[in-house]
Write a structure and sequence with these properties.
The chain is α+β, with helices and mostly antiparallel strands. 16% of the residues lie in helices and 48% in strands.
Length: 200
Amino acid sequence: MHATWNAKSNGKTLQKAAVQYTSKPTIVYANVSATSNHYKMWVEGKNNYIQMKGTNSDHWFKTTAKAGTYSSFIQSLNGNLLTPFIPLHKQFKVKRNGNNYALIYKGNNKKVWNAIVSNAAVTTLIGIDIDDVKPINTEIQVDVNKNYNVNDVKIASSYKDDGQKKNLTMNVDQIDQIKKLSIPSTVKKNSVDLGKIGKK
């Protein structure tokens, strides 16, 4: 799948990101920009490759995730996009869209907000602490085909975080359409393995 999100406050972008993901094999590519930094990251198996832009160097660094951290990250990525919303299905309206269907929600239910950010991979990348957030308004549209497979998900939400009003838009598309994703060989070859630094 492919996902993008944009977090704003007072019209200024706090963070924007684009992520691509394939499951067989599991490969993730993220390009994340925030007010204080910009990084690119590849995940393949237990190996992470990260490049922090705006530092003195544009080197790629390699780390290896611990087994528990890796498995929880992959489990959250492989979960069904709609699973967190199943207990809240009565909050959604269903509209026919040709041969397809649109599931639509509008409101400020805290449980719906928690379902949006319950994905550990998403909250880690976006950096949202859901305990301190008060939802103001959320709009969700999930487009499914006639076989009830998800085509795309669109989310637009406004919320208060640390007393500031913020807006988050998130789109998930290209579901089951990305045939192949691979880490460029230059990234693998030229990355500095942080696990080997200082070891003899």
